[in-house]
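User:
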Amino acid sequence: MQRLTASAEQNAASPRLTLSIATTPQEVREVQRLRYKVFIEGMGLEALKNKDRLDRDEFDDYCDHLIVRDSATLKVVGTYRVLSPSSAQKYRGFYSEKEFDLTRLSNLRDRIAEAGRACIHPRYRSGAVIMLLWAGIAGYMQKHGCEYLIGCASVSLADGGANAAALYHAIADSNMAPAEYRVRPHLAFPIAPPRTDSQPVIPPLIKGYLRSGAWICGEPAWDAEFHCADMFMMLPLARLDSRYARHYLKEGEPA
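Assistant: Predicted structure:
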């Protein structure tokens, strides 16, 4: 297990959290078990259930897996996987290319890191875990010389898509990427017209992206497998909000 310098201690009653990068197959399986619990069991995705109780795909072998543990129990309580530019080149692409046409980003490929499969145990969603994971990503980007972070951020369609549509209308105008960074979904999620009586609920991951200075890069894709609408997010490191930059770049530097 590769340790990172970041740790968090909120108060005397809160768990002490440590951040690391998985270095063994056993640690990757711990990550996959947490993802299974949160994504497949938590979302009731019957078609994806399996006897191993692991959420896994072909990208896991090419990604680095950030891990947040509760130091008292050593349980994995949060994870994020990151794909470096060199690994994306080796694998011939990013995960998000399964859902989006990234042609306009072709000239940036050697400077892009992709983050995905963000997952936090339900009992640890106070904010400390996601802050550590963001710090880890910032340190990872520095280490690999990356200038841009991309990733798909999901919005559940359990309500028929009303929240996904309301969220898109709420954030698109003020957070849309310049034209040269726009992407196109292979299977677009149909966005209903805006409603004046609809206030969107912003998922924590998207909220974190937006607070940090990220753009949304076009209309969402329809992920039928996970029953969600995926927003393609892009965060140029140069746009990272100064408040978050001071925290992330200090706390997330690999040891």
